[in-house]
Amino acid sequence: MKLRSVTYALFIAGLAAFSTSS
Q: How buried is 9 (Cβ within 10 angstroms: 0-12 exposed, 13-18 middle, 19+ buried)?
């Protein structure tokens, strides 16, 4: 089960997008 990996990847992607957006 890679649910944690997917969630973590999604979190990192969102964080990166937010940082870049700001």
A: exposed
Tell me: pLDDT of 1 over 90. Answer: no
Quick one: tokens of 2? 């890679």
Residue with tokens 């944690």: 4
pTM: 0.51
Let me know the angle formed at the C-alpha of 13 by 16 and 2, rounded to the nearest 5 degrees: 150
Both tokens of residue 3?
A: 């649910």
Where does the pLDDT of residue 21 fall: very low under 50, low under 70, confident under 90, or very high at 90 and above? confident
